[in-house]
């Protein structure tokens, strides 16, 4: 399970997160929601180990990733809001860069992403939606115990949105902990826990 305790973060004099706390158990899906600029991406970056908090604690399966950063590598996957891929490299080489065997695109897990036909294409020549699918595949190929996704289905058409949502349900069934920031109704209703951020504070609702 994961426990997020009293996370605070400012940029300069601007206080963005003012003591965010919540917990999630294996198989739980948490939606981080709130208005544009309320701090969702900042929180996701902190949870994924990209940005340090000013204060607060993280506990992932009884390990402290702030004291032992390899916990992020060993337990977590992260789909950032912006494209993390190397544009000049092919899809195949990007997968390798993220530690994936490109053959995995034929496996049951990644087949719905339909990456096989674009494996040799340079990422720079792909559409925004295709890049998104590759970025998600790079983050999930090793089935991390905890997955952070920042607006995961932005730029995807309705067909791929649905297949990624189906993948998320499977991931939950396998016991994964999914934390995602989203503005999408379909994603919010997939999540049993809603963490609503406003003025730096979080309100948590357990829906089901
Ligand atoms: N690296 C940074 N340096 C300074 N300010 C930043 C930085 N990153 C984010 N901010 C500011 O922090 C605030 C929260 O930004 P953040 O991207 O976390 O919001 P968000 O809730 O994810 O927004 P959106 O829904 O539009 O994606 C904004 O005012 C933003 O300008």
TrEMBL record:
It holds the Pfam family ABC_tran. SUPFAM superfamilies: P-loop containing nucleoside triphosphate hydrolases (SSF52540). Signal peptide: none annotated. One of its GO terms (molecular function) is ATP hydrolysis activity. InterPro entries: AAA+_ATPase, ABC_transporter-like_ATP-bd, ABC_transporter-like_CS, ABC_transporter_ATP-binding, P-loop_NTPase. Belongs to the ABC transporter superfamily. This is Heme ABC transporter ATP-binding protein.
